[in-house]
Amino acid sequence: MTTATAQVDLFTPVQVGRYTLPNRLVMAPLTRNRAINNVPQSVHQIYYSQRASAGLIISEATQVSPYGVGYPDTPGIYSAEQTAVWQKVTEAVHGNGGRIFLQLWHVGRISHPLLQPNGELPVAPSAIKPAGEASTYEGMKPFVTPRALETEEIPEIVEQYRQGAKNALAAGFDGVEIHSANGYLLDQFLRDGANQRSDRYGGSIENRARLLLEVTAAVVDVWGSDRVGIRFSPSGSFNDMSDSNPEALYRYLAEQLNGFNLAYLHIIDPRPGEDKFEIGTRFFRSIYNGTLIAADGYDKASGNEILAEGNADLVAYGRLFIANPDLPKRFKLDAPLNQYDRSTFYGGDEHGYIDYPFLEESLEESIKPSLA
Ligand SMILES: Cc1cc2nc3c(=O)[nH]c(=O)nc-3n(C[C@H](O)[C@H](O)[C@H](O)COP(=O)(O)O)c2cc1C
Fold first, then answer.
1. What positions does the domain NADH:flavin oxidoreductase/NADH oxidase N-terminal occupy (predicted)?
2. Tens of pLDDT, residues 294-339
């Protein structure tokens, strides 16, 4: 006799680390460049609390150090002032019944002297200039050749993550996500296109993974493993990233991280036809024992599909959450979605940030013309 098991979908509650989440929709981390001079504003409270019906919110990437800044008006978590405003954000999200993790960030070479304290060179694993341009307060500028970190400086980087994790705890977040994706500092150490060091942080896969594993241990020390996640983009070449053997690299990472009992790993999946490597959530599922969040390009149908296959436990939505503060409700009701406006993604005022309508309002809007 076979017993029918209810199929898991986006609305099946799920345990993530120490939290039971009411649904499996995660708000993906989204940089919005509205934290004036790296300090979040009161408008952040509105923006995040509007989206509190997500099973889990992951904050926009947030610098652990002034040296980790790579764009105008992205928030930090290294000063008392920043921490105090983040506390108001977490209170607002909790007030609306949500949960929010902070994404811990250091951009490494994806910066520019114009964004660095005292106009210094950005730091990186190796002095390799990425192709492309940095976004500064004075407009786009070609990337510079970064300064390779000395071996003796690496413990300071680990300490910056530890302090950022402590500040996030003080600010009332529910957990933290270590940003090890998209070509920023930790990703630069992982992949040999950016890391050509000859010390214990470069060369072999074990050595390239060392900084991430040290940072993970430091952050887990602060938070406990069940409130810490890590984000990877194994297939992404964004920010001029490449690796000679990504399959071996991410296999090693998944195996090592099995020992940490983390809240989750968050995987940016390859874009068919766009990304060079085909390593995503399904690859991790075959090696990694814990909870997996899948991201990139999902809609309701494809989100439900990867959950039903058993290849992911949650699905992150980025652009759809920008435009739909009540995305879970809209998915649940199969209601129409607001369209996102790319021109207001990065920077600007409240428009395109906190004024996307909730379902009731947009239905009212669509009814109004017929009443006129
Ligand atoms: C405006 C914008 C800002 C983003 N900022 C971040 C970020 O701060 N940290 C991060 O890990 N990914 C960031 N991403 C990537 C998203 O988290 C997500 O992976 C991507 O949007 C693909 O998911 P989607 O198709 O659901 O939008 C950003 C994407 C967009 C569009």
1. 9-336
2. 999 999 999 999 999 999 999 999 999 999 999 999 999 999 999 9
Residue partners of 65: CB distance under 8 A and separation at least 6 = 76, 78, 106, 160, 164
Q: How far is the CA of 30 from the centre of ligand 1 (A)?
A: 5
Ligand 1 centroid – CA 210 distance (Å): 26
Q: Which protein residue's CA is at the shortest distance from atom 19 of ligand 1?
A: 296
Residue-range domain boundaries for the chain: 14-371
Residue type, 85: V
Dump pLDDT digits (tens) for 253-306: 999 999 999 999 999 999 877 766 789 999 999 999 999 999 999 999 999 999
CATH 3.30.300.30, applies to 14-371 = no
Pocket test for ligand 1, best of 319, 331, 338, 340 (most atoms within 8 A of CB): 319
The catalytic site residues sit at: 184
